[in-house]
Write a structure and sequence with these properties.
The protein is mostly helical. It has helices at residues 3-34, 39-57, 59-66, 77-110, 118-141, 163-178, 181-197, 204-245, 252-281, 283-314, and strands at residues 145-150, 155-160. Helices cover 81% and strands 4% of the residues.
Length: 315
């Protein structure tokens, strides 16, 4: 496969994330907003919102790939800076959200009679998001880094002006990605053991509901790990190369595809896949989606009949 063919293939994948991911995540967000409010629902709303933004933000990358890696929308410096700022925010915040979802589910299974207030969870989620944005803005505001479009990677890259700051920022970013991986894994294993060893005969219907919800979260977190562990591995490789050699050595292949695949495409495809997990694992979500689609079709048919009827009367 030539470079042009590979770029076109990746561009098509970007456009699929936009065309399918945006409406799918909008439907998901509409469902979770109408659902009974609890801790898991609050986190799902935050995850779905993040996925919607991710699918929307991958559009400039697809346009750049389809235009032989020209800047296109990234040619505007303000847009480039805002895009880079928010894209750096997405993987770290997603990691924290999935960690929170998995950990709180495990806690609910171990301590079923202890209630955690939704407001406290929302405050923690909002606070961590503000912290991430503030950290990135300070780096740019203090002159330690700036965002610049890189044709090799086809997106706006954070260019550090100081090597020590670059290493520190890379290590901190890697820790933000690495920290949730172990707790998420432990939570998945613990939840599986609790569900397996629980008494199936007592309160069987309630146990079945908890088991289904837990299995859904386990599948959701496993999908997350599949798509985000490569991001962590690539960051680790970046830190090792930068620390031991003082600069990051990489060939054309790494510049053109490895960073693009492990930093942009994996995150975008994960946002596209998440609504599919909801569709196949949540029966109420499936029912609500079908109802909304049928309702829209009926409204379109009724509107068309009214238009046709009005035109026939005028004639």
């Amino acid at each position: 496969m030539s470079v042009i063919e590979a770029d076109i293939t990746l561009a098509v994948l970007c456009f699929l994330c936009v065309l399918l991911g945006i409406p799918a995540n909008l439907l998901s967000l509409n469902y979770f907003m109408r659902k009974t409010s609890n801790i898991s629902t609050c986190i799902y709303i935050a995850i779905t919102t993040t996925d919607f933004i991710t699918c929307f933000m991958v559009l400039p990358v697809g346009l750049s790939l389809s235009a032989r890696r020209h800047g296109m929308m990234f040619s505007d410096k303000i847009f480039c800076s805002l895009w880079g700022l928010f894209w750096e925010f997405i993987p770290y915040y997603s990691a924290f959200l999935v960690f929170s979802l998995s950990a709180l589910r495990t806690f609910a299974l171990i301590k079923p009679f202890v209630r955690i207030r939704n407001k406290k969870v929302v405050r923690v989620l909002v606070g961590y998001g503000v912290f991430l944005i503030t950290r990135q803005v300070l780096g740019v505001g203090l002159g330690y880094s700036h965002y610049k479009f890189q044709p090799n990677t086809t997106y706006c890259w954070n260019q550090a002006t100081d090597t020590n700051f670059q290493i520190t920022d890379a290590v901190f970013s890697c820790l933000q990605l690495a920290f949730p991986i172990l707790p998420i894994t432990v939570s998945c294993v613990t939840s599986s053991l609790v569900i397996t060893l629980s008494d199936k005969n007592s309160q069987q219907s309630l146990w079945a509901m908890k088991r289904k919800a837990t299995v859904t979260i386990i599948i959701f977190t496993l999908v997350y790990l599949v798509f985000h562990v490569p991001v962590f591995i690539n960051y680790t490789r970046f830190i090792i190369s930068l620390y031991w050699t003082g600069r990051f050595h990489q060939g054309v292949f790494f510049e053109q595809y490895v960073w693009l695949m492990t930093y942009v495409m994996t995150v975008a495809v994960n946002s596209l896949v998440n609504p599919a997990v909801y569709l196949f694992r949540m029966s109420r979500f499936k029912t609500e989606v079908f109802k909304m689609v049928l309702r829209k079709q009926k409204e379109t048919i009724v509107r068309t009949r009214h238009i046709v009827g009005d035109n026939s009367r005028r004639q």
